[in-house]
Design brief:
Bound molecules: thiamine diphosphate, magnesium ion
Number of domains: 3
Low-confidence stretches: 5-24
Shape: globular
Structural class: alpha/beta
CATH superfamily of the largest domain: Thiamin diphosphate (ThDP)-binding fold, Pyr/PP domains
Number of helices: 15
Helix content: 25-40%
Order of helices and strands: HHEHHEEEEHHHEHEHEHHEHHEHEH
CATH topology of the largest domain: Rossmann fold
Largest sheet: 6 strands, parallel
Mean pLDDT: 88
CATH class of the largest domain: Alpha Beta
CATH architecture of the largest domain: 3-Layer(aba) Sandwich
Strand content: 5-15%
Length: about 425
């Protein structure tokens, strides 16, 4: 039994003896920090006896130190090629509007990572995409709400010039300056600091930014795609489809406003390169932790949150194997997600790593069967189609949406596929 002083004035906080374990994530959830958190209540509990977390969050996050925000802006004004790098912190802080205002007012190109993708749509002229190539051309950085982790070369050479000034804004002080020296570190809520910046920018002042810089940064998206696709030209057309061809076909046929959930190895790497994020959260994936197997759960959540938005999960067959039975959940809850499986009959990225390092004889435990996942969809009460040619992708997707059911499009892809775009990234240290 809890001692009496554990009671709140009106109601006991925790009365049920059955409530015996709360996931640590739930405690973090209650701190008011914005960000992902999980909460699990094990065992039966008496709902009336529990004060569920509500009215517990700060509604407005803390602004940054104004003197530091001024310093940050001074650095950016003097730069020839300043780059804004934004991440999930902007999404969690609901900083979409402030970000749009800042980008429009300054004309500064923006590299968008993880959940920040799509706030400035990839097809917007000031979008520098998500792929970090423009970083190598920039001479100053404003990093807001994103970790400088391995997916962005830790913010270091060869991606970021080490003598380029870096301003880093983060709600978590421990993220600031963690992987590289920085010039100005601002602890604050992403939306609040953007608002402070916007107020200062509205006050006028000159900018030294090169006029052609935003177009160069934006052009890097198409340049990256063209370079990756160059791999396709040399291929034997008789081979099964390359995942890049699948992504190109999806890029053409998926509705602009669709939510694209990405999960897998090589197939996911191609998906995030080729699919545009055009709405906030428009391309959702696991980000830096890289844990595969989340696709179905993410897609189900996205469809529940946005019942009228088309949701497509683009997954490797391996990743699907980790969570595929959640398709049954989608059927039971009538969530018409469309799952596109890039089926190379294997844990492709891992298998190719074995081959590249140690040769064919080292391919161990990474082949999967040529399983027909579309048949699984039908067995579970959904819609299923199998596709082998790029030109058949769009009609299959259309029929899947028309069915109104959860659907699986099983796409046969090349087990031999590889691309310099995922094996030769100089900032990724394997
Ligand atoms: C939970 C988890 N287990 C293992 C890995 C290591 N891993 C990275 S890519 C990959 C292969 C993924 O295969 P698949 O989903 O079929 O995608 P493909 O590379 O074949 O396109 C594995 C096992 C991981 N990232 N996460
Ligand atoms: Mg695979």
């Amino acid at each position: 039994m809890l001692p009496p002083y554990f009671e709140s004035p009106g109601k006991r906080l925790v009365k049920s003896p059955k409530l015996y374990w709360i996931d640590p994530g739930l405690w973090r959830y209650q701190t008011g920090y914005w960000g992902e958190a999980s909460g699990t209540l094990l065992e039966g509990y008496d709902e009336d006896a529990i004060t569920f977390p509500q009215n517990y969050r700060v509604t407005v996050g803390p602004p940054g130190d104004l003197a530091l925000v001024r310093q940050a802006l001074d650095i950016l004004r003097k730069a020839r090629r300043p780059l804004l790098v934004v991440g999930s912190g902007v999404w969690w802080a609901h900083g979409e509007e402030e970000l749009r205002r800042f980008v429009e007012a300054t004309g500064m190109p923006v590299l968008s990572r993880n959940l920040a993708r799509g706030i400035i749509p990839d097809d917007h002229p000031l979008s520098a995409g998500f792929y970090p190539a423009p970083a190598s051309m920039a001479d100053a950085f404003l990093v807001i709400g994103t970790r400088l982790d391995w997916t962005i070369g830790y913010g270091r050479f060869p991606l970021f010039a080490m003598d380029a000034p870096v301003v880093q804004v983060d709600i978590h002080p421990e993220s600031i300056g963690k992987t590289r020296p920085i010039n100005v570190g601002i602890v604050g809520d992403a939306a609040q600091v953007l608002r402070q910046l916007n107020e200062l920018v509205a006050g006028g002042g000159s900018w030294a930014m090169e006029t052609e810089w935003p177009a160069r940064a934006h052009g890097s998206i198409a340049a990256m795609r063209a370079e990756t696709a160059a791999d396709l030209a040399a291929r034997d057309p008789a081979r099964p489809m390359h995942s890049i061809q699948l992504m190109q076909a999806l890029a053409e046929c998926l509705p602009r406003e669709a939510i694209k959930v990405v999960d897998g190895g090589y197939s996911a790497a191609f998906a995030i390169q080729y699919l545009d994020a055009c709405i906030p959260g428009g391309v959702t994936w696991v980000g830096s932790t890289g844990h595969i197997g989340v696709g179905l759960g993410f897609a189900i959540a996205a469809q529940l949150a946005h019942p009228n938005t088309p949701v497509v999960a683009i997954m490797g067959d391996g990743a699907f194997g980790l969570c595929g039975m959640e398709f049954d959940t989608a059927v039971r809850h009538r969530l018409p997600i469309v799952v596109v499986i890039a089926n190379d009959a294997g844990w492709g990225e891992t298998r190719d790593g074995q081959r590249r390092r140690w040769g064919d004889a080292a391919v161990i435990g990474t082949n999967l069967g040529p399983t027909r996942y579309d048949e699984l969809a039908r067995a579970l009460g959904g819609y299923g189609e199998h596709v082998e040619r790029p030109e058949d992708v769009a009609p299959a997707i259309r029929r899947a949406f028309d069915s109104g059911l959860p659907a699986i499009i099983d796409v046969r892809t090349d087990p031999e596929q590889r691309s310099a775009a995922v094996t030769g990234l100089p900032w990724i240290v394997e």
